[in-house]
Specification:
The structure holds two protein chains of two kinds.
Chain A: H1 2-6, H2 9-24, H3 44-56, H4 61-69, H5 72-75, H6 85-188, H7 193-290, H8 299-315, E1 323-324, H9 327-337, H10 340-357, H11 366-392, H12 407-415, H13 417-423, H14 430-436, H15 440-452, H16 458-470, H17 479-495, H18 497-500, E2 501-502
Antiparallel strand pairs in A: 1-2
Chain B: H1 2-11, H2 15-31, H3 39-47, E1 51-57, E2 81-83, E3 90-92, H4 96-99, E4 105-111, H5 118-127, H6 140-148, E5 158-162, E6 183-186, H7 202-223, H8 226-243, H9 255-261, H10 265-278, E7 283-288, H11 297-321, E8 328-333, E9 337-338, E10 350-351, E11 355-361, E12 369-370, E13 372-373, E14 380-382, H12 387-397, E15 405-408, E16 411-414
Parallel strand pairs in B: 1-7, 1-8, 4-12, 5-6, 5-7
Antiparallel strand pairs in B: 2-3, 4-11, 8-11, 9-10, 13-14, 15-16
Classes of the chains: A mainly alpha, B alpha/beta.
Chain lengths: ~500, ~425
């Protein structure tokens, strides 16, 4: 059964949808747990294609992940274009066509929905008929069985009465012959009266048997008639049964005909509905975009329109979806960015090398040394990771894929001893490194590369520089203020949404 | 959320609220939905928001020493029954102060729950569902927090105050998600990590929060989603928890109030509950322990209920004084009651066949008594109610439709067990 399940198309489709959701932030069918015929995927053809590919690759996920990662859709930025005006003119020219398409599709979709209802109706009628025929057939079988036992009974009594008749007949014959012979003997010896007596007795007996024979013969005729009647009944019952059985076969073949129709019309309707939703979304985006044609629009409307366009574009992965870091990813990334991991790495490396030099451990090759160092770092930091997992993860046994944020997470990230210790400058950690950089441009660049793994825009550089300036922390000789301000900047960036989500 | 407000606006009939509602509706008429953005109108809606106070008498309080006394009978024990502020209604003499508040409260004396194990009964009581393997249901606090709490609330919407070294987030929201789980204040201590590091000056704190806001604002320009909003809002709530840390400090209350409530745990915790409710926290759960009196039932109840009576009666009176009773549902519950038969150790054992729960405030009919037990308190003779029925009743008392569905991650789940229904005669 496990084999059957794991080789079904539905299994492959489910896996494909989940794989897509993991990579793209949202399933083609969403939510991923509700993958059924009436929850339309955004792009049904794409989901079927992925399913085909997965089956063709014999469920080798790695190669399919590679394919998805190579798509334009995967590589799209999560960022919206700053100026939507560029799209406005095209969008407004598209609106009439979109409306037309939408209306056409609405009709088609309504028709396919009606078709689903119709085929479903047909199917249920055929099923009902088959069910009632099945019942009738069962009744017929009962009738046939009882008719058969009746004929068997009748045949049996026919046979037994016949045996009786034969017995009587043979007796009658024997006595008739005996009477004739005795009579002849009595004629030959008339003086011997007991011979005449015997002849009379034989005759009486013979007559008696003849009479019995007549009775039994009429009885035979009666039972034979009964048997014939039973036979006729059986034949009728059998005919009725065969007729019903034939009818049932017809009904079943009708079900077999209609069932695939039902599946295909449902699929059709699902596709149509998905396409209609897609067109609705495109139309909505185009309408929102067309608003950007005019230069003077009120800011509230702009925000609203931008939001709408973003929602529609995300729906089709025209802009990428943001995905939150897992609790463990968040902890490791934050520690990596703040320089905590590197500091522990340095400590562990020194420890391992010292231990090797003192021959406290066996000599290791480079790979083993690397593993050993990594294990030490992991052991050192795992307690902190656990604290993150507990706060940022859902409780055991609940789905871990739903994003949530709570005040206690934010309070932990704001005030806990863990985070404070990461920020305080020491050794080679980020804040220590930053305070050594005299040149403001390089400082901002190091800050952005370490935390956001990207360079700052000019505007952002100005913003950070302004912050340092305001805090009196630009000059390296003002160490106390500088260290303070740098910790504030690093904290704010680690706590920001840009760090929390994968783009 | 919206539905809850609408429901609520329908039921406002008192003069004061009628005016408030009219003002709100005027705003709607002029500005349409954007009226919600007007500070004045928004303020009105907010202060009308429904809240819940749960006082849990943990371990199983004796109904015979509290809400359903049977004096002078074989099962009644040594205590008398005293008259209350509701003519004809008597409760145990262990609750003299509460007896004067009964015109604001209501009793259900016909609770029959068929679960005598502490843990399982507590689960059943707090979720309205019997515990089964492989399924988990959210507690009342999580459901109320989702249904009633505003996304931009300053303080967490589901707070649990209990004796002991607890803290952090409870695991009690099941499929509603940790966002609606309880924030636990062990011994009434403020939330964990809510105090700024010593090394950080207030200016530094403000400054880095401002910079974070600026970063998030820039990010939201091009990448805003529901998730990024939830994330940035969690930091705003953290900031307001830090700023209103004083709310969690009952020593800020007058000495007189502290004396009035009592300086014992339940006294301090009820006073803290008042402070939280005054600060718009949606759901506050206060727990008092040590009612599991298999031995010396009468001494224990004398001691524990004495403290409860003092604190609880003050809280009810104060909520009424502040005009908060109409918007605050009060529930005094327990996982089960105690046996009418007194055991050889002068104790009473676990008992779930016929016991009582006290409600009040919000849409609960004041002074009502629903259900009845027989003369010895051994059996419910009228109006039997179980946990699912009580769960429906709580939600209904808040103006929520307890038969409604909640949206959870794209699917619809019932707010309360669809097989049950509320106690209608208790709801206004």
């Amino acid at each position: 059964m496990a084999f059957e399940v794991s080789h079904s198309r539905q299994f492959a489709r489910n896996l494909a949808n989940r794989l897509w959701a993991m990579l793209m932030g949202r399933g083609l069918t969403d939510p991923v747990d509700l993958l059924h015929a009436e929850n339309a995927p955004v792009h049904p053809e794409l989901l079927e294609l992925l399913t085909d590919e997965l089956l063709a690759r014999n469920f080798r996920l790695k190669s399919l992940v590679r394919e998805i990662a190579l798509t334009q859709a995967y590589q799209r930025a999560t960022e919206m274009p700053a100026d939507l005006k560029f799209f406005a003119a095209t969008a407004s020219t598209q609106i009439p066509r979109l409306i037309q398409q939408r209306d056409q599709l609405a009709e088609i979709s309504a028709a396919s929905a009606a078709m689903v209802a119709k085929t479903r109706d047909e199917l249920s009628k055929a099923q009902q008929q088959a069910a009632s025929l099945g019942e009738t057939l069962q009744n017929c079988e009962t009738v046939v069985a009882s008719a058969r036992s009746a004929t068997d009974e009748a045949n049996k009594s026919c046979r037994s009465i016949d045996i009786k008749r034969q017995d009587i007949m043979s007796k009658a014959q024997v006595f008739a012959e005996a009477a004739a012979k005795a009579e002849a003997a009595a004629v030959l010896l008339p003086s011997e009266t007991d011979l005449a007596d015997a002849s009379r007795r034989f005759k009486t007996r013979a007559t008696q048997f003849e009479a019995e024979l007549v009775d039994v013969s009429s009885e035979v005729a009666k039972t034979e008639a009964a048997s014939r009647a039973a036979d006729a009944k059986l034949t009728t019952a059998q005919r009725a049964r065969d007729d019903t059985s034939a009818e049932l076969k017809v009904a079943q073949s009708r079900i077999a005909d209609v069932e695939p129709d039902c599946d295909s019309t449902l699929q059709r309707a699902t596709y149509d509905r998905a396409e209609l939703q897609l067109l609705d979304s495109r139309l909505s985006a185009a309408k929102a975009l067309s608003g950007f044609e005019a230069d003077s629009v009120d800011p509230e409307l702009i925000v609203k329109s931008r939001g709408e366009v973003m929602r529609c574009w995300r729906r089709e992965w025209l802009v990428g979806s943001l995905r939150p870091l897992s609790p463990e990813q968040l902890a490791w990334s934050a520690m990596k960015a703040a320089g905590v991991v590197d500091a522990e790495l340095a400590v562990a490396t020194a420890e391992v090398d010292r231990a090797m030099a003192r021959s406290e451990v066996l000599l290791m090759d480079a790979a083993a040394r690397g593993r050993n160092i990594e294990q030490r770092v992991f052991a050192k930091l795992s307690k902190g990771i656990e604290r993150f997992a507990k706060l940022y993860g859902a409780p055991t046994g609940l789905p871990q894929n739903e994003f949530f944020a709570t005040a206690d997470q934010a309070l932990f990230f704001t005030n806990s001893a863990d985070i404070c210790s990461w920020l305080a400058p020491h050794g080679e950690n980020l804040t220590a490194r930053l305070s050594e950089i005299a040149d403001a441009t390089s400082l901002v660049e190091e800050l952005y590369l370490s935390i956001y793994t990207r360079r700052p825009s000019d505007e952002e550089a100005v913003m950070v520089f302004g912050y340092l300036n305001e805090r009196g922390a630009v000059r390296t000789d003002n160490q106390a203020e500088r260290s303070c301000a740098l910790q504030e900047l690093v904290w704010a960036m680690l706590a920001s949404a840009e760090f929390r989500f994968i783009q | 959320m919206k539905e809850a407000q609408m429901n609520h606006s329908r039921r406002c009939v008192s003069g004061e609220h009628l005016i408030a509602r009219r003002r709100f509706l005027e705003g709607l008429a002029v500005g349409g939905l954007s009226a919600l953005a007007l500070p004045a109108a928004a303020q009105q809606v907010h202060s009308n928001a429904q809240r819940v106070l749960v006082v849990e008498l943990s371990g199983g309080v004796s109904q015979l020493e509290s809400w359903d006394p049977k004096p002078g009978t074989r099962t009644g024990g040594p205590y008398r029954a005293i008259p209350t502020s509701v003519p004809g209604l008597h409760i145990s003499e262990l609750l003299p102060h509460t007896s004067l508040q009964m015109h604001r409260l209501a009793l259900i004396r016909s609770v029959c729950t068929a679960e005598k194990d502490h843990e399982r009964a507590r689960y059943f009581m707090s979720t309205g569902y019997r515990r089964m393997t492989a399924t988990d249901y959210p507690v009342l606090g999580a459901v109320c927090s989702k249904a009633l709490n505003s996304d931009s609330a300053a303080l967490p919407g589901h707070i649990k105050i209990m004796p002991g070294r607890y803290g952090g987030r409870g695991n009690d929201a099941a499929y509603l998600g940790p966002r609606y789980a309880s924030v636990r204040l062990g011994n009434g201590q403020p939330p964990e990590n809510s105090i700024s590091s010593r090394d950080l000056s207030p200016e530094s704190e403000n400054s880095r929060q401002a910079f974070r806001r600026e970063l998030d604002r820039r990010f939201a320009n091009h990448r805003r989603t529901a998730s990024t909003d939830i994330y940035t809002q969690s930091y705003e709530q953290a900031v307001s928890v830090m700023q209103s840390r004083g709310v969690f400090d009952v020593s800020k209350e007058s000495e007189k109030d502290q004396q009035r409530y009592g300086k014992h745990d339940i006294g301090r915790h009820c006073l803290l509950a008042r402070r939280l409710l005054e600060n718009e926290v949606t759901f506050v759960h206060v727990a008092q322990r040590d009612y599991d009196s298999h031995n010396e039932n009468f001494d224990f109840h004398f001691e524990q209920l004495g403290k409860f009576d003092q604190a609880f009666s003050c809280l009810v009176a104060d909520l009424a004084d502040r005009g908060m009773l109409e918007t605050t549902l009060i529930i005094v519950l327990s996982e089960f009651g105690r046996t009418p038969e007194i055991n050889p150790h002068c104790g009473r054992d676990h008992w779930s066949d016929a016991w009582s729960i006290c409600l009040g405030g919000a849409r609960v009919q004041p002074g009502a008594v629903v259900g009845r037990t027989n003369d010895l308190g051994t059996e419910v003779v009228d109006g039997q109610a179980d946990y699912p029925k009580l769960f429906h009743t709580y939600l209904q008392a808040l103006g929520l439709d307890s038969s409604a569905l909640m949206e959870v991650g794209g699917r619809q789940v019932p707010m309360a067990d669809p097989a049950s229904s509320p106690i209608k005669e208790l709801i206004l």
